[in-house]
Design a protein that fits this description.
Elements lengths: L23 H6 L14 E7 L5 E7 L1 H4 L4 E5 L22 E2 L5 E7 L2 H10 L1 E6 L18 E2 L2 E2 L1 E4 L2 H7 L2 E9 L11 E7 L2 E6 L4 H11 L7 E4 L15 H13 L3 E4 L5 H4 L6 E9 L5 E13 L21 E10 L12 H19 L3 H7 L17 H12 L11 E3 L2 E13 L6 E6 L5 E4 L9 H13 L6 E4 L16 H22 L9 E6 L1 H5 L7 E13 L5 E11 L6 H21 L30 E5 L18 H4 L1 H13 L5 E2 L3 H8 L1
Parallel strand pairs: 1-14, 10-27, 12-13, 16-17, 21-22, 25-26
Antiparallel strand pairs: 1-5, 2-4, 2-6, 3-5, 7-8, 9-17, 10-15, 11-12, 11-14, 15-16, 18-19, 19-24, 20-21, 20-23, 24-25
Helix pairs in contact: 8-16, 11-12, 14-16
Length: about 700
């Protein structure tokens, strides 16, 4: 059994340099092509028809008016659509039956010569329904709540020690509940696919975070081998988890292309995304903390309530962070979920950690106030020696250093701990802090390294660049392993015809792909050393995978950590909260590219700001759909919302991870930000708000 990764690579040239994105010029000049920008000759266009009821059955479909429009090629419904094979993902079983599991579920697809005609045809389709009563509202005492056996990261419930007795005996306690409505991913690039069948071979350009997974699912659905399918995701304009698994556009486009014998392009309309590409589930989180006079936690309880759909179970693992963050001999962490008539929730940046750490870090701030302790000191006093839930040693854990280094940079020492005392006219000012964490994962991947006679190298791996700079960092990893200049290394990614690799998600892409690339490049160097004479015209190629290295769990608890500091102003007249400063200090192993890393940290913190202050949605109890379904009603932060944001990191050495010594950084930035801002709002106003987002109406009501 192998637990340790290979010997760390010796960087030549150095990893960590701020190398400019390799595809930057293509993107700014428009040469980079996204899924919806591939238009094969004879391409048709599709437009989906969403259900207008929250639960029921289709009783009649009238497509006559739609088919009568000039240029309409077909209208697919459950009555005539191609039959699909079995799938474990029920959200992809599209147009297969008359059941409507939630409002927005696709019930038809119009296909026409032009996009405009397809849209007109979709609007002309008439669907009749028999409706059933629906249940879409999550409550803390919903009768359908149950505890799942497993969530991502562990069992659905876990208890250590005697929580009830320890909490009852604790001299100081907090018992608080935090709520958050649904959140939506809304990447800049819509979910789009262009599909074409040629002599039985399916080629798809898809907006996806992982072409390998899309290829495998399409093979099952269309009863093909993966060799009969090519999925290309060369450039992807953001995903935040919503493109982590196949979504309706790729299945519908392939179905329509097969039905019409034409290439078909489908870009899902922005207003429909909330219902069909996943969302962050609403959460109701009760946190109970008990501590002695010295601030040592003696009891920690974290119980979460969330919803899932009747189609598939997805549980936001929000209580998992409480199992690894702080020492407590007595703890209870429980997830409860109710299956409602709502769209299926799914991954959204830092699933579990983002909402879970908001609740935990807010409750710790409340405990610090109750104890009269500095919130940083409270966290330091509860720093564990090993991972509390498993007893495993940490591969590296520098949370305390992040708290102290960040506090120094932020100027925390000059903070007056009293709330509501800093004022500039009608503005109340406050500062807050929160910890952040995210697990360090790696998944099996395969890479191919090729040496050409001209001295160049070509790396092939089905990685995906969703805007994070993956092409650039993978080039740096290969160049360092080969001891070659970066300009002599070319990296091919984003196609299922390349060696298979894990998706871009879970902050594990670079670690997984880079590990495979390092292994392939090391093997190629060995081949080159053994080779005598000039290289053959075809060059030398080696292929390696990391299945063995990633097959067994590590004996170490592997996590990235950080601390987020925030300064806010609260307008007592309007209730508006404005962020003056955000500062993040992180420990995430070796940083492989300082330029792209800073971008990731800043992007995560900005998204956390949206979670705290602007992004909010609800489920309409009457119609059963989301009230905020476009960028006019769902407010993501703009540049003006983040006037000053800083990201720093420690030079953390961790020999137990992968050859690069790196941890993922795509998600940890969002994790602590909402709590830091919420704690800062309390410090500014002296009023504790426990429902996100902290919009002006809530602020004014609290101040009144």
């Amino acid at each position: 059994m192998r637990h340790e990764p290979p010997e760390p690579l010796t960087p030549r040239p150095p990893l960590g340099a701020p190398m400019v994105r390799r595809e930057g010029r293509e993107k700014v000049t428009g040469a980079a092509r996204y899924a919806a920008e591939h238009t094969p000759p004879g391409c048709a266009y599709a437009w989906p028809v969403p259900a207008t009821v929250a639960r029921g059955r289709i009783t009649a479909v009238d497509t006559r008016d739609a088919l009568a429009l000039p240029g309409v090629l077909a209208v697919l419904t459950h009555e005539n659509a191609p039959r699909l094979g079995a799938t474990e993902d029920a959200t992809l079983a599209l147009l297969q039956e008359d059941r409507v599991p939630h409002r927005g579920w696709y019930v038809a697809l119009a296909v026409a010569d032009t996009l405009e005609t397809a849209r007109d045809a979709a609007e002309a389709v008439r669907i009749s329904y028999a409706t059933d009563g629906h249940d879409v509202l999550l409550t803390a005492d919903h009768p359908g709540l149950y505890v799942p056996d497993e969530v991502f990261g562990g069992p659905g419930a876990r208890e250590r020690g005697d929580f009830d007795a320890a909490f009852a005996a604790a001299p100081t306690t907090v018992d608080v509940t935090y709520t958050m409505g649904p959140l939506h991913n809304h990447p800049m690039e819509p979910h789009a696919a262009t599909a074409q069948w040629t002599d039985g071979h399916l080629t798809v350009h898809d907006a996806s975070q992982g072409a390998t997974r899309v290829c495998e699912d399409l093979a099952a659905l269309f009863k093909l081998s993966t060799d009969e399918i090519t999925v290309v995701s060369e450039h992807v304009g953001g995903g935040f988890g919503s493109k982590g698994t196949p979504r309706p556009q790729v299945v519908l486009a392939a179905m329509a292309a097969r039905y019409t014998s034409r290439p078909v392009k489908l870009a899902l309309p922005r207003r429909q995304l909330a219902a069909v590409v996943g969302h962050r589930t609403p959460t109701i989180q009760r946190v109970r903390l008990g501590a002695g006079p010295d601030g040592q936690l003696t009891a920690l309880g974290h119980e979460t309530v969330s919803h899932t759909s009747t189609l598939a179970e997805f549980v936001e693992q929000a209580a998992i962070p409480s199992r690894i963050m702080y020492t407590s001999p007595n703890s209870r962490t429980v997830h409860r979920v109710a299956a409602l008539d709502v769209p299926t929730p799914s991954w959204m940046r830092a699933p579990g950690e983002a909402p879970g750490m908001y609740a935990l870090e807010s409750a710790l701030d409340e405990l610090a106030v109750a104890l009269g302790l500095d919130p940083i000191e409270l966290r330091v006093r509860n720093e564990p020696d090993t991972e509390p839930d498993t007893g495993r040693p940490f591969s590296s854990r520098h949370l305390v250093e992040c708290l102290h280094r960040g506090a120094e940079r932020f100027g925390w020492a000059t903070r007056d701990p009293r709330p509501g005392v800093r004022r500039e006219g009608e503005l109340l000012l406050g500062t807050g802090v929160a910890s952040a964490t995210y697990p360090a994962f790696a998944s099996a991947s395969t890479a191919q390294a090729h040496a050409a006679p001209d001295g160049g190298y070509r790396i092939r791996i089905n990685a995906t660049d969703i805007g994070t700079g993956a092409r650039t960092v993978l080039t740096q990893i290969a160049a360092a392993a080969l001891g070659a200049p970066e300009d002599r290394v070319h990296v091919d990614i984003g196609s299922s015809d390349l060696p298979p690799a894990t998706l871009a998600g879970g902050s594990m892409g670079t670690a997984s792909w880079g590990w495979a690339i390092h292994k392939a490049c090391t093997a190629l160097l060995d081949r080159l050393r053994d080779h005598e004479g000039p290289l053959p015209a075809e060059g030398l190629t080696v292929t390696r995978d990391t299945r063995e290295e990633t097959a067994e769990p590590s004996p170490y608890a592997q996590h990235a950590f950080g601390a987020v500091f925030a300064e806010v102003q609260v307008d007592t007249r309007t209730g508006e909260v404005r962020t003056r400063r955000l500062l993040g200090q992180y420990a995430a192993g070796r940083i492989l590219n300082s330029r792209t890393a800073r971008s990731q940290f800043v992007g995560g913190m900005t998204m956390g700001l949206g979670m705290a202050l602007t992004e909010g949605s609800e489920v309409d109890p009457v119609f059963g759909d989301f009230t905020a379904c476009d960028l006019a009603t769902y407010h993501v932060p703009a540049c003006a919302d983040v006037p000053a944001i800083e990201a720093y990191w420690l030079d953390e050495e961790d020999p137990h991870l992968n050859p690069m010594g790196s941890k993922g950084i795509g998600e940890i930035g969002i994790v602590g930000t909402a709590a830091a801002l919420g704690n800062a709002v309390w410090h500014a106003t002296g009023v504790r708000l426990r429902e996100l987002p902290l919009t002006p109406d809530k602020i004014l009501a609290a101040l009144a």
